[in-house]
Amino acid sequence: MASTQDSNDTAPLVLIHRLPRFNISFTHWLRPKFYPLEPSDPSYATLAPSARVLLPVGPTPVDSGTLDLFPAVECVVGSSAGLNHIDLAECRRRGVRVTSAGEAFSDDVADYAIGLLIDVLRRVSAANRFVRAGLWPVKDEYPLGSKLGGKRVGIVGLGSIGSRIATRLEAFGCVIAYNSRNKKASVPFPYYTNVHDLAASSDALIICCALSNETHHIINKDVLTALGKKGVIVNVGRGALVDEKELVQFLVRNEIGGAGLDVFENEPVVPEELYALDNVVLSPHKAVATPESFAAVKEVIIGNLEAFFSNKPLLSQVKSE
User: CA angle, corner 82, sides to 87 and 36, nearest 5?
Assistant: First the structure.
């Protein structure tokens, strides 16, 4: 019987890099165009050092230690929108190109962000719990929610996802402003150079920027104070964009209006203080996850692999800064 390598000896080698908890299989849709090399492959120890492409599954970390293990790697083909798990500076230093999922997840994350915002404002999840608990016949009255239309919404990070969020908010008649690394020349919305001032001028903040050293805890005590007692936070970016301890305290003390959170600082651990709060909607980091988005990211990954092995421009290469 032919070995795995014998049956794939003409297919380009793609090294699959994953943490144990990320058990998504890439094998069936990468073959037969490519030879996905998993750690369980009998040929792994022999072939891995010669692999030119590394494919980290989800947010599996790629750092200098990872690259030391695989010295032949020339390209890291990312499968996620965020890149905080990849040491971009180290890749740049070594001349290793990096790609992301591009815009594959953008529409689904934008939809989810709007869903979380509406849920918090209109108390949809809380109303569901109210009815299921049998409280409607007993209490009759249920606290009113607030409409989305006309709200001043600040977007932190007007990239691919943030731009799509803005488009959706326009349809609701919201007043939009944004903070981003740079002012966008073609964007009509007001630009704020710092998040504090954006929060002070907003009824809600939607956080969808990339996590970096500069944006770590970009939403801090001062920003939450500026947002005010009726303000709402929605985070579909990364948990560490928000100072979670401060956010919990503001919510527990009713010092902001509510929060819709898809991401957390120490996933999958969620602060227990949030469980009992009806003005908080919690989600297990699933804003990106739909069958459609997974199909789209597969296309981006395969496109980047084909481009790399054909010496063509990569589809979603991360720009050096």
Answer: 75
Whether the model clears a pTM of 0.85, i.e. scores above it, the answer is yes
Query: Which residue among the candidates 267, 273, 292, 299 is catalytic per the annotation?
Result: 267
Catalytic residue among 18, 94, 168, 285: 285
**145 and 97 in a common domain:** no
The active-site residue out of 123, 196, 238, 244 is: 238
Same domain, 121 and 153: yes
Query: Are residues 271 and 219 both part of a single domain?
Result: yes
Within 10 Å of residue 136's Cβ, how many Cβ atoms? 13
Token code pair at residue 35: 């030879």
- To the query of whether residue 285 is one of the catalytic residues in this protein, the response is yes
Per-residue pLDDT of the chain (321 residues; tens, 9 = 90+): 344 444 456 899 999 999 887 777 777 899 999 999 999 999 999 999 999 999 999 889 999 999 999 999 999 999 988 899 999 999 999 999 999 999 999 999 999 999 999 999 999 999 999 999 999 999 988 999 999 999 999 999 999 999 999 999 999 999 999 999 999 999 999 999 999 999 999 999 999 999 999 999 999 999 999 999 999 999 999 999 999 999 999 999 999 999 999 999 999 999 999 999 999 999 999 999 999 999 999 999 999 999 999 999 999 999 876
Task: Compute φ and ψ for 312, nearest 5 degrees.
Answer: -110, 165
Q: Are 70 and 85 in contact (CB under 8 A)?
A: no
Say whether 238 is catalytic.
yes
User: Is 278 found in the same domain as 162?
Assistant: yes
